[in-house]
Amino acid sequence: MRIPTPLPALSLTAVAALLLTGCFAPDGEASDSSSERLRVVMMQPPRSGLSPLSDDAFKLSRWSTAETLVTLDANGDPQPALATSWRASGDAAWTFTLRKGVTFHDGTPLTAADVVRSLTRAAQAAPKPRILDGVELTVTAQGDKVKVVTAAPDPLLPQRLSSPQLSILAAKAYRGKTVNPVGAGTGAFVLKKVNGTSSATLDRNGAYWGGRPEAPGIDVRFVPDGTARAAALRSGEADIVESVPVSQAAMLDEDQITEVPMPRTNTLYLNTERGAFVDPALRAAARGAIDAEALVKGVYEGRADVAEGLLGPAIPWAEQRAGRTEPAAPGKPDGKAITIGTFTDRAELPEVAAALQQQLQQAGFTVKLEVREYAAIEADALAGKFDAFILSRATVLDSGDPAAYLYSDFASDGSFNLSQLADPAVDKALGKATKAASGPERRAAILAAESAVLNADAALPMLHERVIQGDSPRVVGSAKDPRERLLVTPDTYVK
């Protein structure tokens, strides 16, 4: 069963070679060209020693070494993993039945006590994993079952437990002050060694409950420089490369790259509380002025998708949206002055801002740009000091559910309400969406809430981003996951 001032080009290649030559064999061992081990280059080095209670958890998940009670399918619905089934056992309680025959990488069997230990440690961590923000839970063992009780009813609890930050590890992982995942997972590959922020080594788990993995192991290198990552794939030094920059994609063969739609939307948030965009007609005028296709072609070199709504193609059911059902008629800007803010941390955003400035000025606005580092501009953006703000925003959080993003960004009491929106119709729709049971009912309520936000023109979605993954033509079965939870699976190998 499978669960699944720039340097010249030559100098950059040389730098990449120096960074990467001979780096894929485990330290102290010679490379074995016949071993068929997977050589993987990743963008971000570990920030917290690969603790699952941090964002490093997503590396453990992408290497198929640490696993959770449930996984998510393409629609974001929960599917069995270390738990085979679950049921609501009260308004705020869920009972999970554990899979039999699972052993940790240290040879100890998976028990309910192990699940209690892992989830309790996460619930009591400071800071908590973000998936548990605002969630209080207690976990108890009941034979081969685990009962999870939340302080308030939570229809998304199974989805929350799919977060890689809630991976289940063996007791040995918790013996120190920090959580150490080395040799403590249940997945298809055993994490054997971590060399600080430079590399990691994993070997096949021959006793994996889901069947024998195809590859004998994984040798990982962390290479933050995007040019060096692309060079590693181009030169044959790597089999799988994470996050190839758009600027490097054209230098690779088409059969080496895959563009994966991301649940991330580049959006122009309009300030509905003060300034020009208090007027719905001027918000509509801004909507009509934006040429998103030109942004995709010019800034993203065609490697993005024009937005039809706030939720993009990475969320399959979003195509069922109604969209704007009551669009306002556009007014005349008549030279109205507006200031648009954005930040430099994402290289494409200043370019998007410059292109938008031209488009809005052609429509009759007078446009000033203010561009800073994100840390220096976030407070002003949240305080509503700009008429508009350009943001690349993730539209699903760790639960795979967009309702939290919509509420955070557009509810009158939302914690990230850049639009300063206070619209009763939007609040009502968002309240219904956040309380709905998971499945078709919740998806329909989320799309209705999206329509309410779009009708208000509080945010103008422009494009949906893609991530570019590089694979050697010899690689079979690597995952192309919009949520970036999977990369190497039990079915991945080099032919």
Summarize the structure.
The protein has 495 residues and is α+β, with helices and mostly antiparallel strands.
Structure classification: alpha+beta
Rg over C-alpha atoms, rounded to the nearest angstrom = 24 Å
Taken together, the total number of domains comes to 3
Largest sheet: 11 strands, mixed
CATH topology name of the largest domain, in short, is: Dipeptide-binding Protein, domain 3
Number-wise, the strands total 19
- The best one-word shape is globular
Weakly predicted, low-confidence segments: 1-34
Quickly give the CATH architecture of the largest domain: Roll
CATH class of the largest domain: Alpha Beta
Helix content: 25-40%
Question: How far apart lie the N and C ends?
Answer: 21 Å
At the fourth level of CATH, the homologous superfamily of the largest domain is Dipeptide-binding Protein, Domain 3
The total count of helices amounts to 13
Descriptive tags:
single chain; Dipeptide-binding Protein, domain 1; four-stranded antiparallel sheet; Dipeptide-binding Protein, domain 3; 495 residues; alpha+beta; D-Maltodextrin-Binding Protein, domain 2; SBP_5; 3 domains
Overview of this protein structure:
By secondary structure, this protein is of the alpha+beta class. The protein folds into three domains: 155 residues, 3-Layer(aba) Sandwich (D-Maltodextrin-Binding Protein, domain 2); 110 residues, Dipeptide-binding Protein, domain 1, CATH 3.90.76.10; 205 residues, Roll (Dipeptide-binding Protein, domain 3). Helices cover 25% and strands 22% of the residues. The strands form four sheets. Strands 1, 8, 9, 10, 11, 12, 13, 14, 15, 16 and 17 form an eleven-stranded mixed β-sheet that branches. Strands 4-5-7-6 form a four-stranded antiparallel β-sheet, with helices on one face. Strand 8 and strand 9 form a beta hairpin. Helix 1 crosses helix 5, helix 11 packs antiparallel against helix 12 and helix 12 packs antiparallel against helix 13. The longest helix has 17 residues. It is globular. The protein starts with 8 loop residues before the first helix and ends with a strand. One of its GO terms (molecular function) is peptide transmembrane transporter activity. This is ABC transporter substrate-binding protein. Pfam families: SBP_bac_5.
